[in-house]
Amino acid sequence: MMKRKQLTMAILIPVLVGSMGLFHFMSQPQFESIRTVDVVRLIGSGMCFGVALTALFAFLRSKSEG
């Protein structure tokens, strides 16, 4: 039960923070003039940061368990 709660929080907090940043960005007037290339770069960067952060958490969790 405890692991499920931790997993839920590990998913919910980044989604909440990311959503707040996205909504803030979408409210700016420059959002309408953004190019497709910029969107693809932002998505790629976000995915890379997400993978790196997940790997860091897995590394830190394995050190504390073993």
Give a quick summary of the entry.
The protein has 66 residues and is mainly α.
Describe this structure in words.
- With 66 residues, the protein is mainly alpha-helical.
- Helix content is 83%, strand content 0%.
- The protein has helices at 2-26, 36-65.
- The longest helix is centred in the C-terminal third of the chain and has 30 residues, at 36-65.
- The relative contact order is 0.07.
Give me the secondary-structure topology:
Blueprint: H1 2-26, H2 36-65
Described by strand count, sense and barrel closure, the largest sheet is:
none
Coarse morphology: elongated
* Approximate strand percentage: under 5%
Alpha plus pi helix count: 2
State the separation between the terminal residues, measured CA to CA. Answer: 21 Å
